[in-house]
Structures are given as structure tokens and as C-alpha cells.
Amino acid sequence: VANVSHELKTPLASIKGFVETLKDGALEETDNARRFLGIIEKHANRLDNLINDLLNLSKIESRETPLELKKIELMPLMRKITANLEDRIREKNHLLDLRVEPEDLELVADEPLLDQALTNLLDNAIKYTPAGGRLSISAREGNGRIELAVTDTGIGIPEQDLPRIFERFYRVDKARSREMGGTGLGLAIVKHIMLVHGGEARVESRAGLGSTFTLSFPSKFV
């Protein structure tokens, strides 16, 4: 509750501050008024994203909605996810590689949840990889498991932060994460999506050298 309250108070304080400034006369200064309204809109969107992520995490954790398991062909799913983020990938001039072995590999899972987990990981990879970097999504089968991995050549994660990276609201760089629009809940959502599937999410990373996030599904989902 303390963490959530802190995350909500920050954008609310900004919204209230700029509303007061507008009421005190800045509303008559057209250029400033537009700029302040833009800032208010940014923080309102941040609140909206935060509340949506909180509701999603609560819903997944409570398991109030049964999993709708079905066979999913992984290559078409990956193509759909990357198409949804194509503009941002192109804007940063990232090179993207999709690999599935074998190419017709299928996974039994809840498709909207799997889509959300992969989208969260790819979204982070785009955010934290400088322009001109490389991204990849891969899937392979082995030892009775299917593993999906999202790899980037981004800024990486310091070793001391790795054990806590899937915690709610844990950020390696709080200011940078907020500036990029992160809610601090994306990886916690990924973790709980994997838990309800009986699998696990893990990460390998080195600061300055990029990261690989892996979703590992047990044999019953193969």
C-alpha cells in the first residue's frame, strides 16, 4: 500500500501543481498554458497506465479468471506482437530477429496472457536499448520444456539488482524508468503470468552488455 500510494502521489502532485498555476493566471498565457496542459495530460496518462497495471496484476494474482488454454503457434504470435510495436522499433532503428525451432512450434497457454508477457518484455527491450541496437525473440523446445526468450543489446542490469528485478515497483533507475513512462509493474506482471502457468521467468544480464529474459514453460504446456 505504501509503494502504491507513493507511485500515485507523484503524478497527482504534478497535476495539482500545474492546475493551480493555470488558475493563478497562466491560463491567459497561451504558449505556457498549452505546455502545462501537455504536462498534465502526460501525468494523467501515467496514472491511467498505473491503475490498469495494478488491476491486471491483481486479476492475475487472484486467479479469479480461469486460464483459457489453447494451442498457440508461436511464430505468428511473435509476428503480431512485433507488428504492434513496429513504429517504435523503426523509430530507434533497431534490428529485430525472430527465431522459432522448429518453425511450427506450438505452446499450450492462455494467449492474451502470453501476448501480454512477451509484449511487456519487448517493450522494455525497446526502451532500454539505444538506437541501432539489436533485439531478438526466440523459442525452442528441449528437455520437455518450451522456452521463449527476449534478448537485447541494451544498457543491461547491474548484478546486484538482478535478484529483485521482478518485484513490484522495483526499478534500477527510478527517474529514467518514470521518464520513459514505466509503471514499475511490467516485470511483476510477467512473473505472475508465468506462475499461473506453472512456469518461471528469469533474467541474465550484464550492465552495458544487454539482457535476456526467458519464459520457461513446463512439460504439461508442451
Protein model, in words:
With 222 residues, the chain is of the alpha+beta class. Helix content is 48%, strand content 22%. It is built from 7 helices and 7 strands; from the N terminus they run ααβααββαββααββ. It has a 5-stranded mixed β-sheet with strand order 2-4-5-7-6. A two-stranded antiparallel ribbon has the order 1-3. Helix 1 packs antiparallel against helix 2 (30-62) and helix 3 packs across helix 5 (111-127). The relative contact order is 0.14.
Shape: globular
Briefly note the structural class of the backbone. alpha+beta
Rg measurement, Å: 19 Å
* Helix and strand element order: HHEHHEEHEEHHEE
Q: What is the terminal-to-terminal distance?
A: 38 Å
Percent in strands? 15-25%
Mean pLDDT: 90
